[in-house]
Amino acid sequence: MNAFDTHEVFNQATPFENVNLFASDPALIEALLREGGGAALQELDALGEKLGRAGTYALAREANRHGPELQQFDRAGRRIDEVLFHPAWHELMAILVGAGAHASPWAAPGPGAQVARAAAYLLVGQVENGAQCPVTMTYASVPALRQALDLPQIAARWLPKILSRDYDPRSLPVEQKRGALVGMGMTEKQGGSDVRSNTTRATPVPPAEAQALFGEQAGGAWRIVGHKWFFSAPQCDAHLILAQADEGGLSCFFLPRYLPDGSRNAIRVQRLKDKLGNRSNASSEVEFANAYGWLVGPPGRGIPTILEMASHTRLDCVLGSAGIMRAALTQALHHARQRAVFGKPLVAQPLMQNVLADLALESEAATAFALRLARCFDEKDDAQQAMLARVLTPAGKYWICKRGPGFGAEAMEVLGGTGYVEDAPLARLYRELPVNSIWEGSGNVMCLDVLRAFGKSPAARDALAAELALAGDADAAFAGYRTRLLADLDGPQTDEFGARQLSERIVLAVQAGLLLRHAPPFVAQAFMESRLVQAPGGAYGRLPAGTDCAAILARALREY
Questions:
Q1: What percent of the chain has pLDDT over 70?
Q2: pLDDT grade for 154, boundaries at 50, 70 and 90
């Protein structure tokens, strides 16, 4: 049996057959249009149709069943440090790169480019999440690499290959490739989130030695010695890392897998991580045994340089969680529509309607927030939008990613034991959800970052107030919630103990404002009653009496 073109495997993995994931999601389409990404409507529709095919779901299943393998040596005993993937992985990567999910806003900038790319990323998140990791890092690397445009080793050789929509998995020097991907490595054993404690060292290579090694591409070479405890996607063609420079302190460096002379860089992959989820993707531990790298950004400014990358990866954490939520919701809705219990469909049972409608509200609010945040990245030259992104990126990464695992567990429970086994996709989706909260800054790191945003500039409060003011004062519950939140944001924000609650309130207020302005009243009112009037709580199915669950569920998934 060929797992890549049979409906039998597909039907084990998903209840849908050839459903257009884009066309079936009215909340996503509406958010795309209002946030300015409408020019990509036709391309996204085609992507949604491709992602919803039987074979694409089968690819996701196979890529996770047959994870990557590390081959450290070739048959002659030479060190090669190659990562081998199942063919399904490469097919998924070709879909993502072909859709421009790794670079489209940089290759074709313009109004709505970030929003359109975010919508594509949300669609992919409904199918397979491991392949999103190298795509995200490549996307996020471009703003950082553009700080090194004066280095021909990077600008002329790498940026055209990074922007290419041609996925090329071959392990070759970049000149011989049709396209290239970029990973990152910051975390060390002793450091974790405290990257300033990194011990990896970088020493400048004397000019004469560098010239002898690399000729005309020698300029600015550094020798790197140390390790990374988490080195994401070692199969990528290059990585951005942090190291302590002998001159300047903690700095950002670009490490290619192949050096300008065509030899392999001394990046030793020690092992691949045995992870809870994200199993289709390779994460590794590495040692740098006199590897060579090139400085990106000013010496001693490694954290600000790589944070330019991190802000974009954090956006993708929000998008990724929202995409998985949507996938889990559709699985639960389909099952509830097909399953009969106590003489009628499960979806007609009042308590189950409460649970499903609550999940649908969470999913729509996450989608609306994620695309609104993407528009901030589109309008980064607007000081107010840039400041809003400065607040909403860490706040959204905290709250939306933190809501993910509970959401996945609740959706799985709708299916009962069927959802808990590997024949259904919910077990895999559930395992994927925690990583977005952990990677690129845990919940506490994000919430402390929210405090720093308000502490550094009063413009942060003003930007948030302007966004919330767009929802008006017609709804008394929202107006009261907004007033209390903004009052608590007056003055310096120093309450680290309460930073999680503050971040939660910010995201809920923005989500409520978006739904009040753009969603049907039965959606907006149910969201506010269950999240603003009362606390959201730790479980779903807590909607108040009188909620129009039938209307919410009809909106959540168009008939298929």
A1: 96
A2: confident
Cα–Cα dist 17/268, whole Å: 43
Q: Is 30 exposed, middle or buried (0-12, 13-18, 19+ CB in 10 A)?
A: middle
DSSP 22: T
Which pLDDT score is estimated for 196? Answer: 83
- How many residues are listed for the chain in this entry? 560
b or e along 286-306 (b: 16 or more beta carbons within 10 Å of the residue's beta carbon)? bbbeebbbbbbbebebbbebb
Phi, psi of 524 (to 5 degrees): -60, -45
Q: What is the pLDDT of residue 16?
A: 58
Q: How far apart are CA 422 and CA 60, in angstroms?
A: 13
pTM value > 0.90: yes
Q: Find residue 79's DSSP bridge partners.
A: 73
CA 372-376-377 angle, 5° bins: 120
Query: Sign of dihedral through CA atoms 447, 452, 455, 457?
Result: negative
Tokens of 470: 């767009």
Cα 10 from Cα 17, distance rounded (Å): 8
User: Is residue 12 over pLDDT 60?
Assistant: no
CA dist 40 and 17 (Å) reads 24
Strands (E) across 199-276 are located at: 201-204, 221-232, 238-245, 249-256, 267-272
549 or 11, greater pLDDT: 549
Burial degree of 284 (CB within 10 A; 0-12, 13-18, 19+): buried
**Radius of gyration over alpha carbons of the chain, in Å?**
24
Contact between 449 and 371 (Cβ < 8 Å) = no
Please report where in the chains the tokens 């404690």 appear, as a residue. Answer: 197
Cα gap 197→179, rounded to integer Å: 34
Strands 201-204 and 267-272, bridge-based pairing: unpaired
- Cβ-Cβ contacts under 8 Å for 102 (sequence gap 6 or more): 96, 134, 135, 138, 139, 162, 181
Using alpha carbons, list the distances in angstroms from residue 338 to 23, 183, 349, 489, 554. Answer: 21, 43, 13, 48, 15
Determine the residue type at 236.
C
Residue among 398, 400, 407 nearest 442 (CA): 398
Residue 213 has pLDDT above 90, yes or no: no
**For residue 315, which of 131, 120, 195, 136 has the smallest C-alpha distance?**
136
